[in-house]
Amino acid sequence: MILVDTSSWIHLLRPDGDRQVRKNVEAALVSGEACWCEMVQLELWNGARGDQEKRVLRDFSRVLPELPISREVWQRAFDLARRARAQGLTVPATDIVIAACARHHGADMEAADKDFDLLSAVA
Predict the structure, then answer these.
(1) Which domain holds residue 26?
(2) How far apart are CA 53 and CA 105, in angstroms?
(3) Number of structural domains, the chain?
(4) Distance of CA 53 to the CA centre of its chain
(5) List of residues 6+ apart from 86 with CB closer than 8 A
(6) Which pLDDT does position 18 carry in this prediction?
(7) Sheet holding 108-110, edge to edge
(8) pLDDT band at residue 123, thresholds of 50, 70 and 90?
(9) pLDDT digits (tens, 9 = 90+) for 64-98
(10) Which of 5, 77, 82, 106 is most deeply packed, by most CB within 10 A?
């Protein structure tokens, strides 16, 4: 499974999105490995532009597997936030929850957001 972050979905949805990021997301979709979580969906719906993007999000909601954000994911997110902060890293809470969700479910991440690079170094 590949948990695709909001940053990468945006590149796919927008005509001017980064070509390599688009290819990465498309490959995850074609292979059937792409998934998302509620936090990613919230971020996407919050920024959805126009009917076309909303239609795509509705279509995705019918076919993409959703990794649940359970109590265990929240606990993992709390721990990840504490450890990141102890290392001097300040990362948005939404990214911490998404990273914790991927880790909990054993999913790889596809993200075009440097905060996930920072979080990957936090053991």
Answers:
(1) 2-120
(2) 27
(3) 1
(4) 17
(5) none
(6) 97
(7) 66-67, 34-37, 2-4, 108-110
(8) confident
(9) 999 999 999 999 999 999 999 999 999 999 999 99
(10) 5
The reported pTM is 0.94
DSSP helix/strand/coil, 108: strand
Q: What is the dihedral of CA 89, 93, 97, 103, to 10 degrees?
A: -10
* pLDDT tens digits, one per residue of 7-19: 999 999 998 999 9
DSSP state, residue 36? E
Residue corresponding to tokens 């509620």? 38
Tokens of residue 7, six digits? 């940053």
Handedness of CA 23, 11, 99, 69 (dihedral sign): negative
